[in-house]
# Entry
Amino acid sequence: MGAIRDYFGNISSALTTAAKGMRITWRYFKHEPPITIQYPRERVEPPPSYRGLHILQQDKCIDCHLCAKACPVDCIEIEAIHHGRTLEWKQFSIDYKKCIFCEFCIPVCPVDCIHMTSEYELATEDPDGMVEDLLTWTGLRPEDQRAVEAAVNKKKGVAAPATIESAKGAPEPGSAEDKAAKIAAIKARLKKGSA
Amino acid sequence: MGVLNNSLPDIGPVRAVDSAIGWGRKSSIWPMTFGIACCAIEMMAVYAATFDLDRFGAGVPRATPRQSDLIIVPGTVNAKMAVRVKRLYDQMSEPRYVIAMGACVCGGGPYVKWGYNTVKGVHKIIPVDIFVPGCPPRPEALMDGILKLREKVGRNQVFARQAQTAADMDGRYAAAK
Amino acid sequence: MNETDIHSKLAGAVVSGVGALDESAKDPFVVVDPGSLVPAVTFLKNDADCRMEMLNCVTAVEREDCIEVVYHLSSVTHRHSLTLKTRVERPAGGTHESWIPEVPSVAALYASADWHEREQWDLLGVRFTDHPDHRRILLPEEWIGHPLRKDYVYPHEHGGMPLDLDAVPLYERDEATPSEPAAPRPSGTPLVQPPNPNSDRPDAGGVAPADSDGDLRSIKPGSNDGGGH
Amino acid sequence: MTSLIAFFEGLGLEGVLALSAAYALCIASLLGFITVYAMFAIWMERKVAAHIQVRYGPMETGAWHGWAQSVADAVKLLFKEDLIPPEGNKFLFWIAPAVVFCGVFAGFIAIPFAEGMQIVDLHLGVFFIMAIASVEVIGVIMAGWASNSKYSLFGAVREAAQVVSYEIPAATALLVPILVVGSFRLGDFNAFQADHGWLVLYNPFLTVAALIYFISSLAGCKRAPFDLPEAESELVSGFHTEYSGMRFSFFFLEEYASMFVAAALTATLFFGGWNLFPWGGGWEPAPLAPVILISKIFFFIFVQMWLRWTLPRLRVDQVMAMGYKYLVPWAFVCLIGAAWFEYMGWGGLFS
Amino acid sequence: MEALEMYTVDPNDDVYTEELKLNLGPQHPSTHGVLRVELKVDGEIITASRCDIGYLHRCAEKIGENVTYLQFTPYTDRMDYLASMNNNLAWSLTVEKLLGVEAPERAQWIRVIVAELNRIASHLIAFGTYGIDIGANTPFFYAFRERESIMALLERPSGARMLYNYVHPGGVAHDIEDGWLEDVLAFCDEFEMRWKEYNTLLSHNAIFIGRTANIGVIPKDMALDYGLTGPVLRASGVSWDLRRDVPYLAPYDDLEFDVPVGEGTHGTLGDCWDRYWVRMREMMESIRIIRQACPRVPAGPFMDKAMNRMYKTPLKPEPGEAYMRCENPRGELGFYVVAEGGTSPIRCRTRAPSFCNLSVLDALLPGTMIADGVAIIGSLDIVLGEVDR
# Structure
């Protein structure tokens, strides 16, 4: 008797559970709108805390190498020549072939000059194109150049040249415009890399 | 078809055929169901409803390498796996594309220094078309990579002689002379 | 029961070669001789008051003078646990190649020990005698060396697959002219040398930010946001 | 068909030539129809799946909802490298997709889309379709064997076992309407249902028989929950694991074409054919008949897709158990019951 | 569908056919990554099997011996990449045990919430991929939809989608923002509704039950013998949950939750369906925990003051060793760390739950069918990153 009950029970349970499942999928088909974010057309911005590509406030950076030491994967390479307090920048690059976006380089910075943006698109055809130089300028800036020359000349006993002009027009380091300009620079570089 | 590849003159009708083929190929990139590590989960997220790779016609993951056009290598490849990755790539039929997904596959990633058995980038094993670094890359970043691959595939010339190829042939011709 | 009770029970049983309980450690442990390991574990598993049904983990630890094998046992019934250790002394000049310590296997007692012991053999080169299936588990069977040893030499390639960062890709190699085999690395060195001497592993204390004060602080005159902290 | 021959004879062609020309035109148009239909069905399947799964499906290929997606797939597959496993049997590997496709293709010639709109009006139409559709199994076994892959072999053997087993309940269930109508000719079913209403409502045994035939046809088309021969999570891709490019697309075409044939049989034999309303008809204007029939066919194809994206897959022994323990006995019960009803003169809800 | 009697193959039988060697993986849709299983099959029936792992061996233990304690945290993310919060937590607790410090109270409550959220996310993947293994593709998409919500939630405090690196020794890396807890509670309400849908669609489906009930039965003794933990052990009828039995975070003592145990509802105790069902019910228990924990998150620091300098000066614990275990979604994750005074440990052993859970596979497969093998692998819910490390 049990076997017969099982037999008919199987038929009824197979049909009813299939029907219930089909009711759910029908509801989804008919009533639930797709939740897809159509990526290149629409995009959801990651939260402000997102750990994306780095930016550097080069004005602030003091070439202390603490971020490079904190990095678990040794992906930061920094090179700068010290002229007293002035820095002649050669390189501040992050190798995104290694970077794991762990954020350990951020809290160690004594001058709070390295940050992570919400940018993340980094696809490229070039195997060497994934090393990003965060510097917005290399070498010395003109006013620093003059200051260094002045210092050198002073040591030599030559009279100082004209007064140093402070850089005008450049956005205040750390301000919102500065950040936006740097993100734009990163984007431009990425486009160049992929083309 | 093989003999005709890149051998016809680079003129309008041939170009039109090429661009039609390129359109077909780029609109129908079937990836292989292939997951290795962490990035595979983000790759699954790309197939899933929120990002839906099928919008680009690429949401038909084929389990067999014969039928797939794209192998996304999502995760660290080590010495034991590298043999298999190479074999899978060899089993795929032309045209085939490779996306290296994640830092490990692009160039070693976090395992570059102390990883005694990891391959430092899958481009040491198989030729890679697009690199998508990140650890793991966001699904959007992978889609960005796939969009770049689509551009690249659409640019490819099938029958028309490529400028570079022609130059090579001229060079060879000159050398033979 | 706590660890002290278990230890006294274990030492009181017929099992010989059971050392004292190190209670100062964070997880108190008992050191037993390799010879009496199997009886001790058998006792702990079968005794009604101990009932260590589960072998959580088998770990080999390479120290200066010895290799330790650590067994973490726990009981679901009584909800207690115990750490058991056994030590094999390092002979003079015992290196990675020359010295394979041997410890009796407990795979007959716990099925979970099977894979754990294989892993320890694979990574640290500890041979577990009487193990039913003594093969490598994670690395390929033909792998040379045991990588978790301190004097392990990193390979350049394995099975034709390049493992170096600067290796030439397989498909770009010229088959006709085989490249010369790379020179073996000195033992214990990592695969990739640090990119520059300054960014070596942070040592004891590291470089405190205070050290980098002074000259480096301000970049240009008139910029007073140099010290952001 | 006869009208076509007459048309070509009218153009001045002799007997055999006219016949050949008519057949060539029929085959060409049928091939075109199957290709276009399969492309549409594949696109539809992807859209149905996507909307069940709260996503969009193809969107970017072609302007409107990715309508050109299947065209792109076809172009790509056409220009993809065709690999033949070196260890396999090259001839069988080469011919298997053609064999698979031919079986289903031949089935199409007997389907009447409207009165006279049929390539060959066979008196044994149902019988012919059932018989010729089984040829596909031979092709699948050839493919599985010639691939020299274990997964392919598993898929082929599963397919053979499954299709052969499910022929029995499917054929038995089809015998029920045949018994009621008293003919194998597909056109007669339409005529009968115009007078008596849809057969599925004719008597309760026919309702059950319709369900049994629909389930068995799922198994015959390798559709979920019976997609064991190509079970992706078990056998990679089953019997076509080693196929690539154009040859692989033949298997794809075959799957969708056989879905069409199965849905057409269901619609014609049980659901009124080109009669719009369940209580019969015959009043529908002739040009509307193919539209009605094809919309019914697409409804059943949609149900097949809907089932596929809802249900899990059965195991191979469960498929066999379901066939032999559940469907076969019930199909015979239906047959005997319908015969009894016919003997007693009962039934016919709308007659 | 009725229960399938286990097949046995007798070589002396008259209709004994030739055995076929079948290689499952490392690239196979249902091996959940790069597991390779060599099978010997007689027709559809598996007669012998041998697991081959190591295709994702990434030298985590060697790295642990060479980087600092803090720097190893992101590497723990990459072990069980489906539950990185829980892995971070286990590692942080290990380092805290070694140092003898304790995280502030606020950090502990945040840890409970993020760990339970990640447990749900991990079980959702198990649910979705199990559906695919069995042949139902749609649940995968529903599971990923809910998982995306969880990831959006966890992204806000941690800043990453998947590998969070959020729980650090001494606390958590960032404080939660205002309104986050309310959003978590709102997610809980939505999830409860969705969970019922999952069950109608898959859990109680007759075909699904037919495919999973009575398959891959692990008796209680066998489970303990193989060192199985987590849902796999609990499905065999052993009520053993470290959150309740060895509370490693103080808030777990105050919270009320049940430990779901397998009951053999549709077949034998400890079969695939039980394992699946334990996971499904655990999701609801996690929701219960989150609901209790959210209103109770106290104000205060989220990171130990003294530990905060570890970002600049590497941690340097006293010589010693610690074994710390936590209840991860897959079972007991243990870290055994031996310190000898340097900035990095001399041994950093990971007792990975998936590693032990997978070891039972070779004992389960013989006698089942190929399709059952797929169901069994799926029901163990392994993560190869953790198996191979």
Remarks:
- Helices of chain C lie at 3-12, 37-46, 112-124.
- Chain C touches chain E through 41 residues (CB under 8 Å).
- The longest strand of chain C covers residues 54-62.
